[in-house]
Amino acid sequence: MNPHPFEKFQLSKSILRAVIAEGYHEPTPVQHAAIPEVLAGRDIMATAQTGTGKTAAFALPMLERLHVKAPGNSEGAGPIRALVLTPTRELALQVEESLRVYGRHLSLRSAVVLGGVSMDSQVKALRRNPDILVATPGRLLDLMQQGRVRLDKVEILVLDEADRMLDMGFIQDVRRIVSKVPARRQTLFFSATMSTEIVALAGDMLNNPARIETTRPASVSRSIDQKVLFVDHANKRSLLAEILKGKDVRRVLVFTRTKHRADRLSRHLSDSGVSADAIHSNKSQGARQRALAAFDCGKVMVLVATDLMARGIDVEGISHVINYELPNDPESYVHRIGRTARAGAVGTALSFCDASEIVMLQGIEKLTCSPLVADEDHGFHSATIASLHSPRAGAAAKPPQWRSFGPRRNARFR
Prior knowledge:
Blueprint: H1 13-21, H2 29-39, E1 44-47, H3 54-68, E2 82-85, H4 89-102, E3 110-113, H5 120-127, E4 132-135, H6 137-145, E5 156-160, H7 162-167, H8 171-178, E6 186-191, H9 196-205, E7 210-213, E8 224-230, H10 236-244, E9 252-255, H11 259-271, E10 276-279, H12 285-297, E11 302-305, E12 320-323, H13 330-337, E13 347-353, H14 358-368, E14 373-374, H15 383-388, H16 391-396
């Protein structure tokens, strides 16, 4: 019998058993590059396309190291030994679920703490002395200030989607948390993009890290068919309705810039007979989880979301990502469309662009180093807006100013 490809990492049989049960066949490039370095105890600064297995790239070797170095007491009565910080609640839940799946044959325990829900159940989980804690920064700081969490025995620190931490204004919270973690530790940075600001932050936290770039920063999977549709703002709803009637449209994630727009669009679709729901930071955590679960199991065809969900959704079978409104930050475009064509699948990303969004479109194309192909084969095409995007018009246009929007603040409890 041929050995399983993951056996070459010399992971424990208990972990391999879980990996095989999950149907993993061949390690992804980021897993190929990162797992041996993490197992060797090195700090990591890794950049890879979204949807390429970053969670397993740090979770599998982290579980291995904690398992091999487990204390004599197998009941998990010791301190927190590993901490994973994520920018969003959904991503925290996703990571903790992955840890439970990969480590289900181990004695290691994990817990998750995040905002938007009662602390009571989280405090109870902490009393069970988890080996691994997954957390959003705001809630973790609250629990630390109450004396509910100690991080003085952490051996491994993971920052997942580190650049998003900075964009959401979490950087000072992260620094305060890291100051309570032992200086002698293994630190892992994983992200889909790596800005100069994040590189500077990593310099303060990492010790001679292995730099892993399986793809260039801000690259987009070739499995995603990207198109831009030039349309007057007033016709966007009608264009969306037309697209949703397509035979190949199965599960659709629609992005808006504002929570108010997400709610209004979701209600409009529901009133039109399309099964839809909205998800954003103003929703309670319970409502967010119910909407995501309904989308995941197919009860809801369309989920309308803000950029909060650009990195917090890991749902299989998303056939289309539609940018109803282009994002202010072009890097968000990369993360938005990365929700489709995951794990080797193919997908479609459609971006609606009105006259006010031409500069945003230019910013996206500059970041990704690739012009979007215009789709004129729809009933609401605007030749006037398309002409604003011509090479001659683009040369005279104001340079993209997406960075002027700055990082979003007051996002602590997202």
